[in-house]
Amino acid sequence: MSDEKKVALVTGAGTGIGAACARALAEEGFRIAVHYRSSESKAREVADKLPDAFTVHADLAVAEEVDGLIAELKERAGRVDVLVNNAGYNRNAPMPAMKLDDYDAVAAVARGTWYLTKLVLRRFMLRQKSGRIINISSVVGHTGNRGQSAYTMVKAGLDAMTKSLAQELAGRPILVNSVAPGFIETEMTEDLPDEIREGIVARIPQGRMGAPEEVADAVAWLATRASYVNGCVLHVNGGMYGG
Ligand SMILES: NC(=O)c1ccc[n+]([C@@H]2O[C@H](COP(=O)([O-])OP(=O)(O)OC[C@H]3O[C@@H](n4cnc5c(N)ncnc54)[C@H](OP(=O)(O)O)[C@@H]3O)[C@@H](O)[C@H]2O)c1
Questions:
Q1: Which of 28, 198, 222, 236 has the least CB density, counted as fewest CB within 10 Å?
Q2: Which residues surround ligand 1 with Cβ inside 6 Å?
Q3: Is the whole model's pTM more than 0.70, yes or no?
């Protein structure tokens, strides 16, 4: 076990943007904790291709599983230097038609993200007196989006958490930032009907959706070289929206 190597925990790292973040942070020399909920084989595939990585499981909607994740990290890695809160969940429906269960399913991941962040701070970063927390929010938390009242509420809240936590931790060498992707080619967006996809691309000045690696690049920079950026939302969206 390489206890001295810095450890990055990436949630939802079996797929899409999370997998790209795991790869980008591994390139920066981190040992990677590849977290998954249901994508076990994909998470193993991601970890197997990295020089120093292991998988960890938890449904962030279940507090006991988050407790278990922290205990496992303590045992297997002994430290967490970077936390990338990438896991997210979405259900689309016009608000009058949306069920309370839909709202709860979306909000439960935000609750789990808050709880995981609190525990990573208490058990690791505050003791280590260093850390980087990067929250993956979304452009739609700023612009709004039809059919996404619950998702946009959660994502706007995540950026607010970034700002509050950065202020709480000011004076300690723990920096907290958000990366807000625009529309990125992942499983979350692959089922979009063609006409919706075309409508989205027409609103992107760069004329295309982004790649997960383009988001991961911003995450890697915030996790390593950025030393005077704190409480910020970095927009990665091909020019759709600048904040
Ligand atoms: N793609 C876009 O255009 C876009 C734009 C803006 C923001 N984002 C945000 O970027 C992040 C990554 O999304 P993606 O596009 O890469 O889509 P994705 O492949 O669907 O990734 C979502 C990830 O969240 C994890 N997850 C969902 N519910 C969870 C739960 N209850 N507990 C633990 N993990 C859970 C999933 O893990 P399992 O698969 O293991 O269940 C999955 O790896 C999300 O926060 C998303 O909101 C995406």
A1: 198
A2: 11-12, 14-18, 36-39, 59-61, 86-89, 109, 136, 138, 181, 183-184, 186-189
A3: yes
In one letter, which amino acid is 84? V
Domain 7-235 fold is: Rossmann fold (3.40.50)
Distance CA 80, CA 39 (A): 22
3-state secondary structure of 191: coil
For residue 166, give every residue at least 6 positions away whose Cβ sits within 8 Å of its Cβ, in sequence order, or none: 175, 176, 177, 230, 231, 232
User: For residue 79, what are its two tokens?
Assistant: 């430290």
Along the 243 residues of the chain, how does pLDDT read in single tens digits? 445 899 999 999 999 999 999 999 999 999 999 999 999 999 999 999 999 999 999 999 999 999 999 999 999 999 999 999 999 999 999 999 999 999 999 999 999 999 999 999 999 999 999 999 999 999 999 999 999 999 999 999 999 999 999 999 999 999 999 999 999 999 888 888 899 899 999 999 999 999 999 999 999 999 999 999 999 999 999 999 998
Q: Any idea where the domains of the chain sit in the sequence?
A: 7-235
Please report which residue ranges of 78-182 form alpha helices under DSSP H.
Answer: 100-120, 126-128, 140-143, 149-168
